[in-house]
UniProtKB/TrEMBL annotation:
Protein source organism: Rhizobium tropici
Keywords: Kinase, Transferase
Full protein name: Dihydroxyacetone kinase subunit DhaK
Domain of life of the native organism: Bacteria
Lineage of the species this protein comes from: Bacteria, Pseudomonadati, Pseudomonadota, Alphaproteobacteria, Hyphomicrobiales
The keyword Kinase belongs to this UniProt entry's keyword annotation: yes
EC number: 2.7.1.121
One GO term of the biological process aspect: DNA-templated transcription initiation
Cited SUPFAM superfamilies: DAK1/DegV-like, NagB/RpiA/CoA transferase-like, Sigma3 and sigma4 domains of RNA polymerase sigma factors
Amino acid sequence: MTGKASSVGKNSASKAGVPDATDSMPLRYGDDPYVWACWLYYEDGKTQGDIAEIMGISRATVNSYLADARSRGIVNISLEPSRLSSLSIAQELKRHFGLHDCLVVPSDDGSRPLIDRLGTAGAQAIARLLKSGDTLAVAWGRTVLAVAEQANVPNLQDVTIVQATGGTRALFAYTPELCASAFANVTGGRLINITAPAIVSAPEVREILLREPLVEDQFATLAKANKAIFGVASLRPNSTVHSSGFFESVSLQDYLAKNAVGVLAGRFIDTKGLPVAGPLDDRTIGISLDMLKSIGLRIAVAGGFDKVPAILAALRGGYINVLITDAATGRGILNADGVTEFDQKAQQRPKTDNSIALPSSYRTHIKKFLNNPDDVVDEMLEGIVKAHASHITPIKGSNRALMARTGPRLGKVGLVIGGGTGHEPSFLGYVGKGLADAVAIGNIFSSPPPTPILECAKASSGGEGVLFVYGNYAGDVMNFEMAAEMAQEQKIDVRTVLTTDDISSSPIEDREGRRGVAGNFFIFKIAGAACDKGLSLDACETVTRKANDRTFTMGVALEPCSLPQTRRHNFEIGPDDIEFGMGIHGERGVTREKMMSADEITDRVMDRIFSEMKPVAGDRVAVLINSFGATPLMELYILFRRVEQRLSAKDIKIEANWVGHYCTSLDMVGASISILHLDQELTDMLYHPCDTFALKVG
């Protein structure tokens, strides 16, 4: 073997006129010095000098080996997939929205909070973009402060940092004053604060303060800003705008009713990026949207899938020309604006006319059992009420508000759930003895209005208060809050628990901003048991919150759903693609991947759930394998098989499990996995008897 290796090596070496290197070559490289050199360089990270010494050849020969290896195809230099994906997304965001620049943080395993990763990226951008003599307007927020805390911008001169909004009474660490101060510290710049509240009590107070010479001077400096850095806030209940003091005297509903989706430096915008007028306009002291848009370099640092609508709106409005975000959010923004394919290499390939390749049998519509598509919800509800008259009955003759025939009673906390249709058997399938007392029903994927919710509260009230439990969606939050206020006026004490079990919709540090999806099944069950057992309103709320905190869900789609009115897919998933992080309203997933086996899909989901649940040997769980509508039981049981294997390997006991259709998304092909991390109290509640047309226990 040595002789053979030497012979081949001499032939290779003689061409380069260098000594033979194969005599000392490790066996794993066979007899090819090119592979050895490439491994030492690309995998072991050795320098060309190190390689020359190890192989006993000259540095010139090492260089020649590496160059020849690339030309011969032995080595293909490529970027790590997640980084390549983030670069492609950044390039397409820049092209699609006409940005000056864009930085996209690659996806990771979730071990580092998203805000920290965005802060690091923002700090890198600030170090490159901020120059001597600049005036930087600084807004406020957790992400903005994270940028300042990680920034290092030495050797700048004559930099001015100006606070972009007035101050707040809030006690958190990312107030406007503290954010501006942090940037002044890391840049060594001159700090100009706005010495007035961000929100004042009346328009007249604002006019008086803006005429004060000191405030006039501060706004004159703000008007000179040539660069700005700001975050983008959603209108989710956990958003910083709620804890900022902005809504102490004004309801968020005033803005949600006008389709506001985001907030930039205290200013509201709609889906098109247009300003949303509201009661705070004449009471706000700070940078206006027109002032922001006039600044030359406008750096937005924002991420998290729940912020996709808000960031997209800001991009559409032209308020951002440098965007720093994460890969999942960036992809979601592009998808939401109709961009589904943005692979760089794919774009460079010649485009073909796909229309000529379609077979004659190609269909563009999905067949459904329908009469008039506009009547689909009412006809479905009529059928359900007749089919399950032993369990549910309309409230005041309306099928949009249904109550349990047995359940509501004096001395018991009432439980009201609700949401849009298209998820059957959720939500109306969980009304009955031992579960919900009433359900309010909206149109497809739409929140029920406040009136039927109020009727449900009144019908459910037994004198001990009413618990509202529903998914964390803007429309549901707005309408249920309005109904709660109306119920309070009628002396009905109402508490609310928002479900937030979708672990893919926001990072773990933003748990309160997550969506409520199929894990509703467990949370409703626990809430219903607590109410039926006669616990107090406080106790019912507490145990329901515990159930929500210990429920983890992630969904995967193979094909999208289709609405009855259009009978077309909401979007398209490629024939070889799947999407992780599906919601239940026909929206796109968080990430798109190539199709993989059922076990690989399950492992991806369970790995993510384990990373948040942090179970230990001996723990007990309840498992829900849920079809999104079109996935059959055959495939669901294949998923359950793997879930059981993964749990068993960690010595985790499945206390109870359900497999089937429990929270669907019309006819979507896909499934979700939900895990409820049990303790003794939750186990007792889970086994408490209930009787609804979709769920019976005991």
